[in-house]
Amino acid sequence: MTARPAARSRLPAIPPLPEDPPDPPPGVAHADRRPVGGITGVAEFARDCFRELPRDGEGGRVGVELEFLVHDRAAPERHVPIDEIARALPPLPGGSRVTFEPGGQLELSGPAAPLAEAVTAMAGDLGLAGRALAGAGLAPAGVGLDPVRPPRRQLRLPRYDAMAEFLGGPYGPLMMCSTASVQVNLDLGERPGARWERAHLLGPVLVAAFANSPLAGGRPCGWMSGRQAVWERLDPTRTAPVPATADPAEDWAGYLLDARLMLVRDGADRCRPARGGVTFRDWLAGRPGAPGRPPTLGDLAYHATTVFPPVRPRGWLELRYLDAQRPDAWPVCVAVTYALIMDDRAADAALQAAEPCRDLWSEAARRGLAAPRLARAAEACFRAALEALPRLGASPVLTGEVAAFADRHVSRGRSPAADLVEAVTRGPGSGPPTWLT
């Protein structure tokens, strides 16, 4: 989880290097040179991913990571340099860590905390950052796919160079440089398998409810979640949902084994793309085309950071399938997701409604809440979340925001994306684009 210290955040001089990717599970470091130990070693690594990290205080925490495409208010088609964004940002007292994605997307990652505390801290940091950006003539776009600009990579670092070569076009550059999301990170709890199942089964309904990326090149792209459409068109061995059986750790081990190698590290500061469709399983077996040395535990930990399924276990659960939202909507996104996965009573009602939609990932991305089955399921899920939020410590204000979102979007069968499409088809107005916050 984004369980980073809640110290005051000061912007680093440069974004974190790709050789320092997200932390691996407990007991494994990216520099770990011990041999993997065959299939059994991968299985143990996968099981570690479902062992909750040690923590201070009570469970039930959530970590919030918000990505934003940053635009020039006066010239939204201009690619804003990362340095220009960085200079505008002040220290963030809520503890959010500031990083950048390859295309210059701004990411704020808050420390893990109970729901009300996490939302309040992130809202304060984002408000401060938004005001500072506005003072520099910039605005974070509350949308999941760049509505007007073609992809342009700003970070020229070894990991991203290898990733770009491996993924190729056109969807690799779009994913790396033109997408933004709300990532919700949740404690595993005493029954991690139950939360893992809920996160997957609810995925299509939540994708539809919060679909918010319908534009590309200044016009509708044919999808309510164009961001999700981009991810679906990448390497499916690393972006498809993890197949579900009775044992989540076993499923995750199989996924890691059968995902194609994206890159191999040659020393501390060098990465090269893997070629020929070689999987981690092939590498373990020493098959033709695999790297010339046996994989280490560090290689396996690094490989796990290069696969991007909708839900990923890392000592917590990462939910990666939600489009970026406007400032008045991302807390709703976090609160509803939290309630439906963390609260057993809400989960029972939500899962019953969502079960018929469990495989509708593509329909959710294309049609959003215009798909009747998804709309009916979303209404039931929001009712369950609204009932649960007061007992989960949500403030009346946050609960009211969820109710207002349900009235505006869910009960009307209109994903947030529908408002953006409507604004574009009406023609340009006198003010800034509606997707600028």
From TrEMBL:
EC supergroup of this enzyme: ligase
BP GO terms, sorted: ergothioneine biosynthetic process; glutathione biosynthetic process
Location of the region described as Disordered in the Swiss-Prot/TrEMBL record: 1-35
Catalytic activity: L-cysteine + L-glutamate + ATP = gamma-L-glutamyl-L-cysteine + ADP + phosphate + H(+)
Keyword set includes Ligase: yes
Signal peptide annotation: none
UniProt keyword Nucleotide-binding present: yes
E.C. number(s) listed in UniProt: 6.3.2.2
MF GO annotations: ATP binding; glutamate-cysteine ligase activity
Pathway(s): Amino-acid biosynthesis; ergothioneine biosynthesis
Pro residues composition bias: residue spans: 13-27
Keyword annotations of the record: ATP-binding, Ligase, Nucleotide-binding
InterPro entries reported for this sequence: EgtA_Actinobacteria, GCL_bact_plant, GCS2, Gln_synth/guanido_kin_cat_dom
UniProt function note: Catalyzes the synthesis of gamma-glutamylcysteine (gamma-GC). This compound is used as substrate for the biosynthesis of the low-molecular thiol compound ergothioneine.
Family: Belongs to the glutamate--cysteine ligase type 2 family. EgtA subfamily.
HAMAP family found in the cross-reference section: EgtA
The protein's name: Glutamate--cysteine ligase EgtA
